Amino acid sequence: MTDRRGREALIEAAAGAFRPRRPGGGVGPSPAWHDLDPDGREEAFAAAALSRRLEAALDPEGLSSTARAVLARIRR
Amino acid sequence: MAELDVHLPRIADGDAAAFGAWLGAAEPALRESLRRFAAQADVEAVLQEALLRVWQVAPRVEPDGRPNALLRLAVRVARNLALDEARRAGFRAPADEVELTALLDRLAGAAAPEPPDPLLRRLIAACRAKLAAKPRAALDARLQSGGSEPDAALAAALGMRLNTFLQNVGRARKALAECLRRGGAALPEQVP
Question: Under 8 Å CB-to-CB from B168, ≥6 apart: which residues?
């Protein structure tokens, strides 16, 4: 895998909505986000913002995967 | 136009569906309020944690007579979490109270953020149908998981390697965004 492809994969991973639980509870950060440089983190933010808008527009209830992840946690 | 606090009484009563309705409208503005922290803290994690805390404190929120009290509280909670995360990571991350106050005033004077309009919904559904099979499968897997499963599990379920899955997610987003632009839809972000 080229460096460029590796960087793009990290950006896509950080732009997703899945986040692990912290050992003591709470929402933990994405490991991929930690591996990105500052420009990559900005790109991941932009990709996430666009993705969430697209997801909400595709969802019958207008919810993004961020909203769904939060609702899943409060319903547990 | 109604403002987002129309949902507050039901949210305070523990109605998760009402919180979902509020979330659908509030999320873009809340995420945008964290843009300046994008290089210093994982905004997605901060945002989710802030929303969970807002859900917990919502029963104690007293409207102050101005619109969007819950959204303004969420902005403060998220900002404080982002500052904590940034400082923990070694950034100086000064609190910009002037900018925060201006943002809160704008939200207090604003109508409710608009949900996706029906025309955009129809257009994006048509664009999704035109996606190539693998990008569409990756996108659908993320949508169906609702942020509750790691990408490695989604990739494995599709028989894809993780990096292939991630490439397909990116291709799907770019193709959707391009298709929407060709259809005349305004998008909030440049495609990275």
Answer: B134, B135, B137, B138, B139, B160
- The domain ranges of chain A are 3-75
pLDDT at B142: 97
Domain extents for chain B? 4-108, 118-182
| Overall pTM > 0.90 | yes
A-B C-beta contacts closer than 8 Å: 180
Residue A34, by phi and psi: left (phi above 0), alpha (psi -120 to 50) or beta? alpha
B59 in Cβ contact with B104 (< 8 Å) = no
Q: What three-state secondary structure class fits B74?
A: helix
Nearest chain A Cα distance for residue B124, angstroms:
7
Quick one: tokens of B179?
Answer: 């298709």
Q: Which residue has the tokens 């961020």?
A: A66
pLDDT digits (tens, 9 = 90+) for B106-130: 877 766 666 667 788 889 999 999 9
Among B23, B120, B145, whose Cβ lies nearest the Cβ of A63? B23
ipTM: 0.96
Top-level class of domain B118-182: mainly alpha
Nearest chain B residue to A63, by CA? B24
Best mutation target among B22, B46, B48, B131 (most A Cβ atoms within 10 Å) is B48
